[in-house]
Amino acid sequence: MPRLKPKAGTALVIFLLGVGLTFASLRYVKPDNCYQLCINEPCALGSCQAGEQKAGFPFPFVRDQERNLGSSPPNGWGRVGAEDYIYPNLIAFLFNILFYSAIVWSLITLGKRLRTRL
Fold this sequence. Notes:
Layout: H1 6-24, E1 29-30, E2 36-37, E3 47-48, E4 54-55, E5 62-63, H2 90-117
Parallel strand pairs: 2-3
Antiparallel strand pairs: 1-4, 4-5
Helix pairs in contact: 1-2
């Protein structure tokens, strides 16, 4: 198996960490208190409009699918569920990977500079 050059290996690690952190950001769901679909205005506490709840940080890339209410079970309307992960916003997903990769790269670079000064 061919060995990767050190910079290519570092870039691959940074990219994979960026992807992992992007998937971990799916735990960030806003608004976080949606338990049922809101039909009346204003919405009662614990309910949201269809398509209002989103997941991902800093750019939400998974959202409750409002257009296809038939694509999710009725108890999943108004909130992000497993059926909504099939239709991610790929551009926001890529921006999240770039965001987290830039943070990881900055931390690695800072660590290397601090290590050379000590």
